[in-house]
User: Fold this.
Amino acid sequence: MEPITLAVSVIGLSIAAAMLALVLVSLRRTSVVPDSDVTEALQDRLWQIAESEERYRVLVEATTEAVVQRDGQGRITFASEGFAALLGVKPLDLIGSTLTPQVIERGASEQRSDGVRVIEERLLPVDGVPRWFSFIEMAGTGSANGPSSLRAGHDVTERVEAARSLDEAKSRAEAANVAKSRFLATVSHELRTPLNGILGMADLLLETRLDPEQRTYVEAFRTSGKALLGLVDGILDFSRIEAGRLDLAAEPFDIAAVVEGVVELLAPRAQDKGLEIALDIADDLAALRVGDADRVRQILVNLAGNAIKFTQSGGVGVGLARAGEGLVLTVEDTGPGIPEERIPILFEEFEQGDDSASHEGTGLGLAITRRLVERMSGTIEARSTVGRGSTFRVVLPLPAAEGAMAPGSPGLAPRKVLIVADSAFQAPFLARRLSRSGAAAVVVNSVEAGLDALSGVAFDALIADRSLGDAAVRRLAAEAARSGVRCSLILLSPFDRREFGAPNAAGFDSYLIKPVRARSLFDRLLEPRSAASAEAPAEPAAEPALAGGAPGRRVLLAEDNPINALLATRALERLGARVIHVRDGLEALAAADGQGPFDLALIDIRMPGLDGLEVARRIRVREAEAGAAPLHLVALTANTGREDVAAAHAAGFDGFLPKPLNLRALPGLLDRRAEAA
Assistant:
């Protein structure tokens, strides 16, 4: 029962009791002697009403601290003990008065559909301690002076002050997050700017004449610089997630291409350690998905990079398959494994596979990965056996894009393929892929087992891993030729490709580069070719530091940091470009007007005077007014968040180059302008 109902009941009972008492007194005064039964009944009724009044009064006092009824002129006709206490008087002393406690602040107010009004007020009682009350008001019966009103309320000071404290805490937290975001943007810029100089100058220095010892030293500090950049990126990513500033894209992308790209990106790191890295993509997977390709790539880089980091022998296997309407990514390794008791805390901040202090890094990679997976409404789990390796499994509910279909695979039945490789992942993955295409695949891990298999079964194709040794694989190729095998393929790493020479000279028809792409595998098996007539499309070519370029191209460089300006200028000049360097936004505008035309403008976002965004806006406005051809504008910035990229494009930039500056991106920019000219 609501306080207002209780209060009405108490007032009604009080009136009823009073009326009944008046009837009895009147009967006595008029000497009318009622029947004894009637008198007794009236007395019993009076007692019942009194008991009910007392019971309801107790309920009102227990649930409602202040009750007051007023007539149409605002005069008090009933007041509870709690209401009278606010004014420091007795309830009877208030009858007929218009007194009311002082209201020092009004809060929320609500008019309900049943005519009841709910309001909150902060009152100042006679004790001088302000208190919040929540009152329920309703109109009563009417009279010559107008309708009466009833108000019942209770103390809500604790609730209101707690809510206000929470609001204040929330406001402080939001202000702290804003300050944190501003700090991160500043720190990101300030850290990346010197790193740009360190890494860029190291790249330039490596292209000069250095003796072997000097080259070792330069490569060492470039490696250290890249490690520092990785730490900075990890800390900034985690801080963005903590601050709630991580936005996810929802755009169509090719998940198979993303995963292939990550595996090939990490392959040199794995092969430098003598490890293999292999990929298996399910045939029934519709690769075109809707989601954030960059964050999926980051998840996979973190997991596979960790696997390479902690694995000393064997390799790393990456799998991509369907999981209902979504997909599942798995990363397996043959590393030392993780103790079972550490798996529950593995995804916490600053945690790693064991509690030793010997590991590099911040221990934020898996924490960031878990946060990214959860932001995508996915799940991540780890399984591990000490001494045998670990498996990480990520399920992401990324829907297939409209019209996306599984590519399927060519039919290879009833071909028989022999794979000779001492391999933890690449050979089993090849066999699995071949089996799904209808071929019968046999895997053996030694040359002797391979020779025995060739002598006993008529195989259609042989795939031999060069890691078994040059002499061994040549013996296999020779035996395959004698046995009538129609296609012999040599399995090579990119480093092997340079050393091994022409595969046909060793008795092979062609080669496959690890990690093997499915389309390369099927191309080789369906159309055997000699290495002299075909090149494997999946082979990563050695990257020249600064190749290409466009001689005579004119480039406007707006950069206020002298080291970064020197780095970019020298790199561009070595590509044959002529560089006009300015130090702030106003100089950039003046140069664009007075020293043009330019083929390309590289403009730093943060500069004194006018920042890069405003420079781009003004250049675009001037071009529109003059009807001039648009200058190709590329933003240079150490702030690499999604919102920074969006702001650059909104200001009129055509491209975006993050710092540390990747010098290998410059030839492509100049080539693009040369082709357009």
Q: What stands out?
A: The mean pLDDT is 81. The chain has five domains: 3-161, 169-242, 251-396, 416-526, 554-676. The first strand starts at residue 66 and ends at 70. Residues 401 and 644 are 27 Å apart (CA to CA).
